[in-house]
Amino acid sequence: MFNEQYKKEECYWGKEPDKGVKLILKYKKSGDVLDLGCGEGRNALFLAKNGFDVTGVDISEEGIKKFKTIAENNGLNVRSFVKDIKNFNFDKKYDVIISNATLHFLKENEIKKIIKKVKENTKKDGLNVINVFTEENPNKNFPYLFKNGELKSHYSDWEILGYKEGISEIQKHGKLGKPHRHGFSVIIARKH
Asked: For residue range 127-148, what is the model confidence (pLDDT) as tens digits?
């Protein structure tokens, strides 16, 4: 879906990592990170620059190509896979698993399976940082939009370090993108 955007734009989503991803540094200084739906890699690259061992997974070949090129140009060693996250096989457990603005592109039953896998493949004291669109999102054209409190309910058995729901500030993606807002829910949670 984003292959054409990634071909046209230098950094379609921008270069700055998400606020929730920056918060990881408050709780972890190193470790293995998995970014599910990494796109061009802005969040994964931020963590790699800060000493984490990073693996990025995305369905977009162009996104992964750009992620690897930016990593190489910055002397960063990253792993990457062009793969639909529904079919990603976890080969180990991670200290941190992130998924930003990805899960709402899936169906509800697929989301539940992925969150279950993500939680199972997070090490003890590991973190999950998940950001999804909610029913408050002005654009309803997604396979699934989370209900208020739903993302938090998936982590009721973990320590919630941060949770926020709301409407985003005005955003614009890419040079030709139109200003818009998102209804969102974001969580940072630690496994007991």
From this structure: 999 999 999 998 899 999 999 9
d(CA 48, CA 54): 6
Separation between Cα atoms, residue 80 and residue 87, nearest integer Å = 14
Question: Considering the domain 3-190, what is its CATH architecture?
Answer: 3-Layer(aba) Sandwich (3.40)
Number of other CB atoms surrounding residue 69 within 10 Å: 12
Question: Rounded to an integer, what distance in angstroms lies between the CA atom of residue 102 and that of residue 34?
Answer: 14
Q: Residue 111: which residues within 8 A CB-CB, separation 6 or more? A: 103, 144
Q: Which residue has the tokens 């096989």?
A: 89
Tell me the C-alpha distance between 136 and 165, whole Å. Answer: 9
pTM tops 0.85: yes
CA 48 to CA 74: how far, in whole Å? 10
- Residue ranges of the domains in the chain? 3-190
